[in-house]
């Protein structure tokens, strides 16, 4: 079983379609506020037959920061694609962004370790870092930010004992 977080987003919805076309069983995590109708729109944009695949999605609604919920959700999961993030340039969203993007990822990684998930793939964008960090990246400090990101990725790879990566080819 594969879990896709951020499943109602642009990347998550297309990832769901790709995984289902390859015959994988998936759990899709979305927040209660998410509009999963956009996922159906993404599925039918390419081919009307893909609407049948949409019915195969096992939807779960909750917060990525809810430790007990995430632990239970991972019970039968072997692979995780972590696409969930909040991207905003509004100062009002800083706390919400930090909670979802940082704490949510921390909760998910820790629960994956406890549940012995085989592979974990974190998908992100520099936009998730926020406007100020992006401005620094573009103007002043690209080396230090990139170096820090590489350190975090290396730490995750070591912590997950090589389980950080993509799915193996289907047997």
- Oligomeric nature of the chains: single chain
Low-confidence stretches: 162-171
Label the overall shape.
globular
Note the main sheet.
5 strands, parallel
CATH topology: Rossmann fold
The total count of helices amounts to: 7
Distance between the termini: 14 Å
Order of helices and strands, N to C? EHEHHEHEHEHH
Mean pLDDT: 76
Output the radius of gyration: 17 Å
* Whole-number count of domains: 1
| Fraction in beta strands | 5-15%
Topology:
Layout: E1 2-5, H1 10-21, E2 26-30, H2 37-44, H3 51-54, E3 58-61, H4 67-73, E4 79-82, H5 94-114, E5 119-122, H6 131-139, H7 142-159
Parallel strand pairs: 1-2, 1-4, 2-3, 4-5
Helix pairs in contact: 1-2, 6-7
What key attributes describe this structure?
171 residues; alpha/beta; Rossmann fold; five-stranded parallel sheet; 7 helices; globular; disordered C terminus
What would you say about this model in short?
The chain has 171 residues and is an alpha/beta fold. It has 7 helices and 5 strands, in the order E-H-E-H-H-E-H-E-H-E-H-H.
Walk me through the structure.
The structure is a single chain. Strands 3-2-1-4-5 form a 5-stranded parallel beta sheet, with helices on both faces. The protein has one domain: Rossmann fold. The protein is of the alpha/beta class and 171 residues long. Helix 1 crosses helix 2 and helix 6 crosses helix 7. The C terminus is likely disordered. It has 7 helices and 5 strands, in the order E-H-E-H-H-E-H-E-H-E-H-H. The protein is globular and about 40 Å long.
